[in-house]
Write a structure and sequence with these properties.
Blueprint: E1 4-12, H1 17-31, E2 37-45, E3 57-58, H2 59-67, H3 75-87, E4 100-101, H4 105-115, H5 120-132, H6 141-150, H7 155-158, H8 168-180, E5 188-191, E6 195-198, H9 203-213
Parallel strand pairs: 1-2
Antiparallel strand pairs: 1-5, 3-4, 5-6
Amino acid sequence: MNKNKITIDIVSDINCPWCYIGERRLHEAIAASDSNYDFELRFKPFELNAAIAPEGMDRNTYFTKNYGPQILSQIDAMNERMTENGRELGIAFNFDKLTTVNNTFNGHRLIWLAGKYGVQEKVALALFYSYFTEGRNMNDIDLLKEIGKSNGIPAEKLEGFFESEEGKQEVREEQKWAQQAGITGVPAFIFNDKYMVSGAQPTETFLQVFKQVAPTIEQIKTADGESCGIEGC
């Protein structure tokens, strides 16, 4: 039996916890779909903090600058809520290790390169884990190279990659595409190049979306014509 194909563009940023949760919920939905569909996942970049310097910014300074000083009294409650959401999906958020908000442009270049070798999801998940569980710097070139090599990108392709111009224009074009599609926050999921779902939706919601967007063939009512069947013509 031929399966309906569903392409999903996952628009996300590496340092967005809801993007991590949304991707895991989507993965749960795919696993629960009983192999009724053929899925093609494609990761697209969206920089939440494109103006941050390469060395990053202190996390409390970042929150204060963007949301005002009153946000500092709310961070612990926000982290606890996020930690509980992550625990249900097997994600270990360690917010106590996150002292810096990093520039993620090079991380998105790595994900773009991973697409050439069919390992985008593996690389993206490794980046999420490295940041949110291990608290590591998402703009550490040596770390990015190691993540790439450990998840299927040939070592020789990573030599000199970040020092080159490769992938820069492509990532910028994909970010421009997301903006033109009307995306202002992430995660966002685009199904079959047509339908968009915003936010880290529950697994059950994704399952319903699969049913709605899967291509179907509808028969046009006409008079019967001659045909052949399994028992002959």
